[in-house]
Write a sequence for this structure.
């Protein structure tokens, strides 16, 4: 039996828009790092004389780094607070983005992307953990819904910027832009972000305590199920991120700018449905909302496979992708809330496992879509459909009909953000 954690008292804080903006910026680490250079990924492949699968490893390396970085940063922030690990992570992100721009070959670029991901993971996990420090109940679900909208907004802006920059600079200039964005986030964190986890609420015990917390989380079937669902739907999403640029530009002949606008349509769906899912989860049912999202993922991924096999027109591909990506957005607020709601005392550690699953599963799936070469979209359809099907299976086995048992009383905190 797991030891009962020490209850965390209610905390009254009045926090305004500046912190809301900083928390929003922290959520764009992953989307911006991933999306802004996707329109020039084929050009990068040619300049560095790399195979398609090797170039896609730059996507995989960043995803794995983002996942592992969260697994490290979460427990560290539970022990030492949120602010110091955050500042160290953002500074490392600035430096590694510059190293990416200076890479002379594909191998050092892959290595630099991995370290860039490690640094970027810090901001993502601390944005989630900070929300759990200060929110609970319906406000927590709504908070995660807003994070989904913000991530989608970053996904809209990233490819547009990347596509337009492709007309005036190369992929190295885009990585320099990421470094500049990192500097802006660092300055914002220095000025605005204050510690949200008081010393009396921090955990102690080093690696032994961290291992015990991980075992406590993994032994919770509801937590493990939601984490696996998040991982599998992320595998479908990042397979799309890694493969859609080759499908839309290579097979259907879109320019980098055309690809960026097609990508925007998916991102707008991601934003709209992510926002709606946060509201629906709060007012209706977290599990019901999750089920709707999984059905959308299955329909979209299945449509993508059929479209690829029959070589249907571009509109069929885009509609399938929009359905699948929107379904992923619908699953995100309820999975995050279900996973973290019962663990306010170790919110950073719980969030780190959730992030690790999302980015590690995504990183493993991304290169699979390139195994068939750049001339076919069938591998992309197979990977996304298999991922969505596995997520649905986990839902049926571990989440549906299972009631969460709180490990401690959860109290409603005062408003964090005036959103």
């Amino acid at each position: 039996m797991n030891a009962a954690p020490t209850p965390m008292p209610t905390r009254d804080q009045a926090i305004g828009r500046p912190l809301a903006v900083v928390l929003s910026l922290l959520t764009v680490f992953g989307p911006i790092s991933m999306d802004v250079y996707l329109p020039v990924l084929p050009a990068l492949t040619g300049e560095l004389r790399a195979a398609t699968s090797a170039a896609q490893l730059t996507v995989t390396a960043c995803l794995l780094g983002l996942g592992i970085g969260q697994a490290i940063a979460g427990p560290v922030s539970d022990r030492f607070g949120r602010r110091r690990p955050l500042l160290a992570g953002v500074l490392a992100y600035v430096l590694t983005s510059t190293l990416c721009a200076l890479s002379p070959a594909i191998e050092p670029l892959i290595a630099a992307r991995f370290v860039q991901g490690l640094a970027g993971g810090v901001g993502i996990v601390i944005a989630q953990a900070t929300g759990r420090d200060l929110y609970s109940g319906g406000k927590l679900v709504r908070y995660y819904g807003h994070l989904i909208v913000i991530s989608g907004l970053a996904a809209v802006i990233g490819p547009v910027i990347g596509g337009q920059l492709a007309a005036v600079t190369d992929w190295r200039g885009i990585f320099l832009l990421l470094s500049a964005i990192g500097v802006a986030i660092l300055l914002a964190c220095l000025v605005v972000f204050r510690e949200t986890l008081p010393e009396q609420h921090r955990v102690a015990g080093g690696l032994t305590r961290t291992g015990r917390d991980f075992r406590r989380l993994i032994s919770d079937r509801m937590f493990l199920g939601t984490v696996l669902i998040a991982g599998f739907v992320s595998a479908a999403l990042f397979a799309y991120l890694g493969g859609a640029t080759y499908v839309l530009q290579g097979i259907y002949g879109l320019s980098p700018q055309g690809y960026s606008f097609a990508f925007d349509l998916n991102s707008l769906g991601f934003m709209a449905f992510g926002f709606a899912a946060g509201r629906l989860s709060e007012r209706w049912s977290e599990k019901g909302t999750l089920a709707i999202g999984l059905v959308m993922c299955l329909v979209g991924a299945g449509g993508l496979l059929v479209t690829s096999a029959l070589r249907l027109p571009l509109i069929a591909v885009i509609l399938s992708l929009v359905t699948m990506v929107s379904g992923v957005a619908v699953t995100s607020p309820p999975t995050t809330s279900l996973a973290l709601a019962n663990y306010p005392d170790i919110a950073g550690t719980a969030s780190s496992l959730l992030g690790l699953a999302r980015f590690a599963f995504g990183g493993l799936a991304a290169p699979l879509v390139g195994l068939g070469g750049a001339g076919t979209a069938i591998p992309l359809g197979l990977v996304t459909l298999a991922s969505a099907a596995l997520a649905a299976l986990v839902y049926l086995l571990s989440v549906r009909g299972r009631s969460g048992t709180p490990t401690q009383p959860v109290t409603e905190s005062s408003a964090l953000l005036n959103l």
Summary: The radius of gyration is 20 Å.
